[in-house]
Design goal:
Layout (H helix, E strand, L loop, with lengths): L1 H17 L7 H16 L4 E4 L3 H14 L10 H10 L1 H10 L6 E3 L4 H10 L5 H9 L5 E5 L6 H12 L3 E6 L5 H5 L2 E4 L5 H23 L1
Parallel strand pairs: 1-2, 1-3, 3-4, 4-5
Helix pairs in contact: 1-10, 2-10, 3-10, 4-5, 7-8
């Protein structure tokens, strides 16, 4: 475990070496990681949401968590055995190709649900509705908002806490409403939207690398 902790710290040190302006984010990145580690250790999941470029980042994060990022994620022996028992012919291919996953859902990726809800109900609650439906106690909601004041993200954060979930905010440098609603808020030290987004990517890549090392 000590060696693992050292390796996790090395990911943050490498991030800051490559992006020195993120030095002030070190503490919040580490605290966000431990929230995610605790959640995944208990069999919970991550819900992620954002708008525009941050929606694309949400999908990107899910892609890194739900399949191999840098490490091979071979299935454990028990599920491999069950797959073969279920079908020797098909199970072999499944065992050879399926990868271990950290369950994560991007809330922008359900257009039929979102458009139906926005048409029938309150458009700004489209993410909150999904948090209400998917979220359970112990899950984590990651809200990405460069301003930190996107109302649909704020509604989702409030809903997450009401469901017994933890909330991580990923914002820009300015103080924001999302920061006040978050258990941990990582504030990229820029104020221009595209510059904030350019820093969000290495931050969440670092978190994904740390989680992959911990669980795989």
């Amino acid at each position: 475990m000590k060696e693992l902790r050292k390796k996790l710290k090395e990911h943050v040190e490498l991030l800051i070496a490559r992006y020195p302006m993120l030095e002030g984010c070190e503490d919040s990145i580490i605290r966000a990681y431990f929230l995610l580690e605790e959640s995944y250790s208990k069999g919970n999941k991550l819900l992620v949401a954002g708008n525009g470029g941050s929606a694309a980042d949400s999908e990107h994060i899910v892609g890194e968590l739900m399949k191999g990022f840098k490490l091979p994620r071979k299935l454990d022996a028990e599920i491999s055995r069950k797959l073969i028992d279920e079908s020797e012919e098909l199970g072999k291919t499944l065992v050879e190709n399926l990868q271990g996953a950290l369950p994560a859902i991007a809330l922008d990726g359900h257009p039929a649900l979102s458009t139906a809800y926005m048409n029938d109900c309150e458009p700004l609650l489209c993410f909150a509705q999904q948090v209400n439906g998917y979220g359970v106690e112990g899950d984590v909601f990651l809200g990405i908002s460069t301003s930190g004041n996107s109302k649909n993200i704020l509604y989702a954060a409030v809903t997450a806490h009401a469901k017994g979930m933890k909330v991580i905010g990923l914002t820009g440098a300015k103080d924001s409403k999302l920061e006040t609603l978050s258990d941990v808020c990582i504030k990229a030290p820029q104020t221009e939207t595209y510059m904030i987004q350019e820093l969000h990517l290495p931050i969440y890549h670092c978190l994904c690398l740390m989680l992959e090392d911990r669980f795989f």
